[in-house]
Amino acid sequence: RRIEEKKDDNWSGGAFKKHQEAKKEASKDKYITVGRGTGKIKFGDIKSTPITSTKGLWVSSGRGTGKRKL
Q1: Which of 10, 25, 54, 62 can pair with 19 through a Cys bridge, CB separation 3.0 to 4.6 Å?
Q2: pTM
Q3: pLDDT, tens only, 34-66
Q4: Contact present, 43 and 54 (Cβ < 8 Å)
Q5: CA 17, CA 23: separation in Å to the nearest integer?
Q6: Is residue 41 a contact partner of residue 30, using CB atoms and an 8 Å limit?
């Protein structure tokens, strides 16, 4: 049986953001189609979206009948 070290998860949070930026930087010179295929832009021209805090927001619970503040 082969045993290997478990790699860190990078599918959410700050680790995913770093992973996403690295992949974007690697393919910044490629073109992508936009606007139902009518236009094209370079992938590096797309700005990154900032991560906003969810503190103070209301979240619904129980089929939408209840709410709580984060």
Answers
A1: 10
A2: 0.55
A3: 999 999 999 989 888 888 888 999 999 999 899
A4: no
A5: 10
A6: no
Measured distance CA(1)–CA(19) in Å, rounded: 30
Distance CA 44, CA 23 (A): 11
- Reference 53, options 70, 36, 29; nearest CA is 70
The CB-side HSE value for 64 (13 A sphere, CA atoms) comes to 0
42 is written with which tokens? 């370079």
Distance CA 69, CA 52 (A): 16
Q: Running DSSP on this structure, what letter comes out for residue 56? A: T
Phi, psi (5° rounding) for residue 12? -160, 160
Helix (H) or strand (E) holding 55: none
Query: Is there a contact between 31 and 42 (Cβ–Cβ < 8 Å)?
Result: yes
Paired tokens of 4: 């290997």
